[in-house]
Structures
1.
Amino acid sequence: MRIDILTLFPDMCEAFLSESIIGRARAAGLVDIRCTNIRDYAGNKHNRVDDYPYGGGTGMVMQPGPIYDCYQAVRGDRDCHLIYLTPQGKTLTQERVKELAQMDDLVLLCGHYEGVDERVIEEIVDEELSIGDYVLTGGELPALVLADSISRMLPGVLANEDAFTEESHYGHLLEYPQYTRPPEWRDREVPEVLLSGDHGRVDRWRLEQAVERTLERRPDLLEAAEEAGELTTEEQDILRDRKS
Ligand code: SAM
């Protein structure tokens, strides 16, 4: 998969994308992520890419021309899906991440200042996504959130697939609590079952914990799964036992 990030701050993105799991995945060729500076397409000698908003008001607006030219250059003759990161978009979910991870060519557009001229959104944007109901100074962090969440679902990026299929939000449950060494820390002990070596008991305990946690913290996820008929028999049993 190739992901292109169109940004005014490519170094900011590269700093994140060169480290840890994503950095290794890129180095191993498991995902091709490139950052392109929109300013390189300013088309004027001052490299200016923003201007005052028509109608007045505070802040600056990114001009449509440089974004359009940058996108055309990056896209070439590929068929890309262009996502503009904006607090006005649909909120990103793990479900959408799974779908986007099936695509071959994604382009992520980062806004800055007051955002981007509406006409370029109408002209080239396929989808608008938000990472939550709050406002950041720019689209770089949202684009990195998206690139990270997609990349970790690509084959080979994580050591094994359980690493994400068992995680919160992959299905309808939050993940069970995790523990590591030492077995006792500040008078707090690791639950005995996890040290038992009995994989059947461990699996059952983890499922019970996941159901319990989801009920406590995000009952809406369980209600939606129940309505959609997505609860497994084991999950239904745990819920029934808990109620009785
Ligand atoms: N004036 C815009 C509005 O009220 O909708 C907000 C602009 S924001 C200060 C600048 C840029 O940050 C946006 O163009 C967008 O790319 C990015 N951004 C800020 N918050 C975001 C969020 N929650 N999700 C995705 N992108 C966001």
2.
Amino acid sequence: MKHARMRYQERATYCKNPLAKNLFLLLDDKKTNLALSADVTTADALLKLAEETGPDICVFKTHIDIIEDFHPDLTHELQAIAKKHRFYLFEDRKFADIGNTVKHQYEGGIYRIADWADIINAHSLPGPGIIAGLAEAGLKKQRGLLMLAEMSSENNLFNADYTERTLRMAEAHPEFVIGYISQQKLSNEPQWLYMTPGIQLTAGTDALGQQYNTPESAILEKGTDIIIVGRGIVKATDPKTTAQKYRAAGWEAYEKALSECS
Ligand code: 5BU
């Protein structure tokens, strides 16, 4: 099914969260809807990827707890690269506890995620307290939260009712929730951003249940906004050139979606 399409910059006018607004504007300005999932395990590899792919991405997604030689300077350096190449930092932490605990996990510990990650994500499973807890730490720093509404892995336990209830929970916090991690567009309200993992240039699976769709399938057919690509780029012989290919595929799908409904 094709979805009526509005330009990202027009969507920005509907956002109640300042970061969401700026991110939508950046997409059209920089002409990229590619997020890199930087799943590497050393600080040097992480910084190298950020430098190499920075000019071609809108979001740099981390799993900061897989970095073997983490040091607080790393996040400062990442922030400097993000500023230079104009992309946002997204820590894919998938918070999933009570409000009080997630607030500590977000602000404190070794990683101090709230100090450097523009975007974080959370499961709705614990109920709305998780959003309230994260918002207490994130709102004052102008951060944004994505709720996990669907996952890409096969035989996951998400279902239509859970997704629907996740949407209701998010809709009650438009000042902090900026959108969803999902496999498809889920609402007709233009303010919500959809970021989609499980993307490669060829559809397929990995050996551990990951399921891949193409950029065109996500952006054009399923109506999502940003493609998240990990191994498709990170494991390529030339990540920079490969990122450019994904960028072109994602952008072409967006332009095609716009032209099909104009
Ligand atoms: P890949 O190498 O492109 O398969 O990496 C996908 C990334 O997205 C990886 O960091 C996952 O943790 C993340 N991910 C996912 O694959 N599927 C999901 O539903 C969610 C996150 Br939520």
3.
Amino acid sequence: MASLYKMPISKLSGIGAKRAALFNKLGIYSIGNLINFYPRTYEDWNTVEKIENLQYGGMYCIKAVLGTPISDARISGGRIISRGTVYDDTGSLQIVFFNNKYISSMLKGGQEYFFYGRITAASFGSQMIAPTFSLASEGIRIHPVYKQTAGLVSKTISNSVKQALALLPKSINDPLPEQVRNSFGLCGLKQALNDIHFPKNEECLETARKRLVTEELVVLNLGMRGLKEHSRGESGIKIKKDYSSEFEGFLPFALTNAQKNAVSDCIKDMLTKKSPMNRLVQGDVGSGKTAVAASICYTVVKNGFQAAFMAPTEILARQHYDTFCKLLSGTDINIGLLTGSLKESEKKIVRQELSEGKINLIVGTHALITDKTEFYNLGLAVTDEQHRFGVAQRAKLLGKGENPHLLVMSATPIPRTLGLIIFGDLDISVIDELPPSRKPVKTVLMKAAQRKKIYDFIKSEIKSGRQAYIVCPLVEESELDDAASAEEYAAELMLKEFSDIPVGIVHGKMKSDEKEAVMQKFVSGEYSLLVATTVIEVGVDVSNASVMVIENAERFGLSQLHQLRGRVGRGEFQSYCIMVSDNGNLDTKARLEVMCMTNDGFKIADEDLKMRGPGDFFGERQHGLPQMAIADFADTKSLELSQKIADYILFAYKDIRNEELRFLKAEIDRLFERGGQNSLN
Ligand code: ADP
Ligand code: MG
């Protein structure tokens, strides 16, 4: 039998080209995809209400016989309204459907059904609007509700899933071997797939869910370990001498104790361990991670190897490049910059010099990991703001050398259990101390009506020599609006409020060299005020800036606000963060007030996690992990269980390439988008 992942959904009856396109919109192309498209939620039809007890406005499940066949009537605009009367032993009720020309053939007069829907008042009594339904004889009481899209309703999806499940072979290739399932009390895959879509009761649903969530996390877990596997062996990068104190001499400041500890952790890894360094340096915004990374780069380079420093944005890469050039200007170290916006001819030269070993330290963006980039002898790979990269990208950078050392920098605190997966075998150094003379940023929440006051404040700060940011969030989802709004807003400000102050604008729609030019002018002090969209969110470092105004603050997540606020208070000056919001929602207010109460990034992340859950917390998949079909990263228990099972599997079967694990291996390859055969064959 051909793989169900290779069978297009149009093979199912009732799915033509048009409907198939709608399924595609939901990310469903094959029958296999459809089977893995798990319900978003369920309607619990377990409490069946009698018709006489129904109240207006409530959602109910009733068990009733359709008395009269459904009759269709055309109303204005060519729309169809379909009506029928149902009854049970306590009364009768009208059911109504809109614009569903199939309904009259789906429901048969004289048959008993479950109907589930909302009760509203009608001129003749009460009615149930567009209920979902199923034959009473089927007895299923928990109904799947799928994510829908315009033109494709949950009921249609559910019908198609029913067909798809019927295509599953009698015996299915289960990724989890029987021995593993038995040891950990997990049901078989076929049962799980049937029950996740159409559970007979809560218990079946729970059993199915547990099995599928666990499998997905085990697959993720083992896949992540696989990514790291290659770095397990002995490192050929022999670091013999520690140059960190020499490097400290170049710095215009003394390292904090926390920075020193992080540096010495790294040096110890490289000097004493057989396997390469695998270290995460975690520290709040402004804690000085760059200096730590630079120090390690310096030691590696002085030992005769190349170091690569990868940043998530062009601006950040350029800024790090400038910092390194300044710090190391008196040395013989040759520093290069490689970003996407360089001219092809420039890139070519940089790549040439890199592959010949003429460049010792390269700073760059994703351009560092393209196939074209080759190193002479990469000894250390550093990724800055790790949450912005996929784990696969980190692995790719490592692959540019022969088992090089790895240093990962991150400001995003990650729940421990999830951290175990993402960072697995990484050792962690925490920078839990800010450089001295930092004053906590004073944070206030203000209303748009107080804008005049805010502007006056900005002006007075600028007058005394400081600089300021105003951040406007994306107005709509589209970048176009984002560009337009930031630009319009800035233009307006320049004309009116800040006519005698030089204002720069950056937004996502600008070409990176344009952005760069504006940022550069802000860094050099030519612009006193920068109006920006979130492109300045990570890493940018202008220590003279003392005011951060965040418009429509309610639109940002707490961790994002904290990152934004981290752009000020980076120097000796008292700094201010002014969040502007007119949103009256109490939850929103509570969220923003957390910002006013603390400057501690870890506390804020905790609150954020509590209030929103990790899905939102991490934003656009900022953890860099593959998309999950059913597992939830907030589900600590399942994360822990999957960890245990992954350990067990590697212990019991020795190697993931073991023949008995071939279907599990296939699922890992599929999750990490490496194709291959899998269980729904
Ligand atoms: P982050 O941890 O957010 O990446 P950076 O490395 O950009 O922080 O450092 C923030 C600012 O603090 C920079 O301007 C940097 O020069 C400065 N800095 C770093 N370490 C120290 C220190 N020990 N003493 C004083 N200033 C420092
Ligand atoms: Mg940084």
